[in-house]
Design brief:
The protein is 14% helix and 39% strand. The chain has 102 residues and is mainly β. The strands form 3 sheets. Strands 3-2-7 form a 3-stranded antiparallel beta sheet, covered by helices on one side. Strand 2 (38-46) and strand 3 form a beta hairpin.
Length: 102
């Protein structure tokens, strides 16, 4: 049940990793004070138990990276099922948008 390592970005969908407990993102105070908005693509893998690991955020501004990483690490995903058994999923990409309330 080794999952091939996919290098192309994959959007999160039901075949990849569906969030059971989706990432809850805290807006970084320093970014909010400066009126900064941004977006991240958080790339990570999911264990067969649905736990994210190897989380690497790629953000439009570095102020968002810690918050994006923390949010994904605290979330939980439905593991991918292959031939009736949960398997590890590699290279999931989860987009996170940081938008201030206008």
């Amino acid at each position: 049940g080794e999952v091939p390592y996919v290098l192309t970005p994959v959007a999160v969908d039901d075949r990849q990793a569906r969030p059971i407990r989706p990432p809850i993102v805290e807006y970084p105070i320093r970014a909010a004070e400066r009126g900064l908005e941004g977006s991240c693509e958080v790339r990570f893998s999911v264990t067969a138990r649905g736990e994210p690991f190897d989380v690497k955020p790629d953000c439009s501004h570095q102020l968002f990276e810690a918050a994006a990483k923390r949010a994904v690490l605290r979330s939980e995903f439905a593991p991918r099922i292959d031939k009736g058994r949960p398997v590890e999923v590699r290279n999931v990409v989860y987009p996170i948008e940081f938008k201030l309330e206008s």
